[in-house]
C-alpha cells in the first residue's frame, strides 16, 4: 500500500540513545535538555531569531490569537487544513474568507481590502503546500489598516522566501511537526516571531503563564513539547538533508512524467521544501475516476484540501468560487523519502492511462 505520505523513522537505536538521556536525567517533560537542544538546533538550521517548540501545530495558532489579543473578524483563507479555520472559531473569532489565487493557491491579496470592516483585527493566512503567500503585499495592507498577521506555516519547515526564513514574515508564524509533515517529532509544532517582546508573551502563554515556579506573568495554557517528542525530533534532524533530497527526486520524476496536469505554481523567490505534490484535474469526475484507479492498485492519494473551508458547518458559507472549484479538483500524490522510482512511474502510468 502506498499512502500520500509515510513517516520518516530514524534508526531505532539512534532514537533510543537520545531517549536514554531523558531516562538518566529522570526528566521527560517541562522543557528538559532535549527540548532546549532541539530548539537551538532548529533556530540555527532555520536561521530564525526565536523559536518555541510546542506539543502540536494547532495550539500555536490558538496561542498566537491570544497573544495578539485578537477578537472580531479575522480575514482568512478557505484553502487550508481545517485547523486554520476551526482555531479561529474556537477562540471566539469570526473567520471572514477571502478567495484564493487560482495558481498559487494562497489567499488572493488583491481581494483582502474589500473584506476589511471596522471589526477586522487580523489576517490569518496559510502558506499552502509550502508556497508563500504574497507576504509583502499583505504586510502593506495590514499596516495600512492596522491589522495583525499570523501565518499558518504548518507546511513550511525549511522554506525560505527571498533568502529569508518564511517563518520571519508576519507578526507570528506557526509550524507543525506532525508525523505527516516534512520534519516531525511524532506530534509537535513551533511558534516563531521576530519580536523578542512578543516571544516572551508566547513563551509564558505556552506554559500556563509561569514566570518561575510561583509567579504568573499572565494567562496561559499547556502547549509544551515533551522530551519524548524532542528525542524524536533530534533523531530525525540529522536526516533532513536526505529527506529533502529524496523528496526532490520524487517531485522531479512526477514533473517529467505527468505532463497534462495542472500543478502548483511556486511564488518567485521561494526555496521550496517538496512538502506536497498537488495535481489539478479538469473536474471532480475525472479526479474521482483516477482516484479509484489508483486505489485499485493500492495507491492512496489524499484530497488536500477538501472541502473548501468556507463550506464547513460552522462557517458563513459565503461563496469562494475559486477555492471551491480547486478543492473539487486537487489531489495530493504520494510523496515521501523512500518512495522508489518504479512506484512513482507506476503512479504516473496509472494517471496518464486514466486521463
Ligand atoms: C497539519 C496542519 C495543522 C495542524 O498541525 P497539527 O500538528 O496536526 O496540530 C494546521 N494547519 C495546517 C495547514 C496543517 O497542514
UniProtKB/TrEMBL annotation:
GO terms for biological process: polysaccharide biosynthetic process. The modification N6-(pyridoxal phosphate)lysine is found at residue 181. Keywords: Aminotransferase, Pyridoxal phosphate, Transferase. GO terms for molecular function: pyridoxal phosphate binding; transaminase activity. InterPro entries: DegT/StrS_aminotransferase, PyrdxlP-dep_Trfase, PyrdxlP-dep_Trfase_major. Gene3D superfamilies: Type I PLP-dependent aspartate aminotransferase-like (Major domain). The active site is at residue 181. It holds the Pfam family DegT_DnrJ_EryC1. PANTHER family: PROTEIN RV3402C, TRANSAMINASE. Belongs to the DegT/DnrJ/EryC1 family. This is Aminotransferase DegT. It comes from Aequorivita aquimaris.
Amino acid at each position: 500500500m502506498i499512502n500520500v505520505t509515510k513517516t520518516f523513522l530514524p534508526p531505532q537505536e539512534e532514537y533510543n540513545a537520545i531517549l536514554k538521556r531523558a531516562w538518566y536525567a529522570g526528566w521527560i517533560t517541562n522543557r528538559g535538555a532535549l527540548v532546549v537542544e532541539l530548539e537551538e538546533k532548529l533556530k540555527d538550521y532555520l536561521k530564525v531569531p526565536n523559536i518555541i517548540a510546542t506539543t502540536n501545530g494547532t495550539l500555536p495558532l490558538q496561542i498566537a490569537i491570544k497573544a495578539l489579543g485578537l477578537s472580531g473578524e479575522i480575514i482568512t483563507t478557505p484553502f487550508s487544513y481545517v485547523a486554520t479555520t476551526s482555531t479561529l472559531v474556537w477562540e471566539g473569532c469570526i473567520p471572514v474568507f477571502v478567495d484564493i489565487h487560482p495558481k498559487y493557491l494562497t489567499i488572493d491579496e488583491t481581494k483582502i481590502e474589500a473584506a476589511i470592516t471596522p471589526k477586522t483585527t487580523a489576517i490569518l493566512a496559510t502558506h499552502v503546500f509550502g508556497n508563500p503567500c504574497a507576504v509583502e503585499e499583505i504586510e502593506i495592507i495590514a499596516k495600512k489598516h492596522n491589522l495583525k498577521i499570523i501565518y499558518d506555516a504548518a507546511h513550511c519547515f525549511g522554506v525560505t522566501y527571498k533568502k529569508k526564513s518564511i517563518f520571519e514574515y508576519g507578526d507570528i508564524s506557526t509550524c507543525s511537526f506532525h508525523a505527516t509533515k516534512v520534519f516531525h517529532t511524532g506530534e509537535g509544532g513551533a511558534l516563531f516571531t521576530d519580536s523578542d517582546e512578543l516571544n516572551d508573551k508566547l513563551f509564558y502563554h505556552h506554559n500556563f503563564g509561569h514566570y518561575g515556579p510561583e509567579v504568573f506573568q499572565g494567562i496561559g495554557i499547556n502547549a509544551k513539547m515533551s522530551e519524548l517528542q524532542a528525542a524524536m525530533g533530534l533523531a530525525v534532524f540529522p536526516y533532513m538533508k536526505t529527506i529533502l533530497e529524496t523528496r526532490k527526486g520524487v517531485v522531479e520524476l512526477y514533473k517529467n512524467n505527468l505532463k497534462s496536469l495542472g500543478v502548483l505554481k511556486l511564488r518567485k523567490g521561494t526555496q521550496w521544501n517538496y512538502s506536497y505534490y498537488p495535481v489539478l484535474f479538469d473536474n471532480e469526475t475525472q479526479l474521482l475516476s483516477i482516484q479509484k484507479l489508483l486505489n485499485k492498485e493500492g495507491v492512496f492519494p489524499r484530497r488536500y484540501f477538501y472541502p473548501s473551508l468556507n463550506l464547513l458547518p460552522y462557517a458563513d458559507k459565503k461563496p469562494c468560487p475559486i477555492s471551491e472549484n480547486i478543492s473539487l479538483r486537487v489531489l495530493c500524490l504520494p510523496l515521501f523519502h523512500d518512495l522508489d522510482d518504479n512506484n512513482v512511474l507506476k503512479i504516473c502510468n496509472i494517471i496518464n492511462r486514466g486521463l
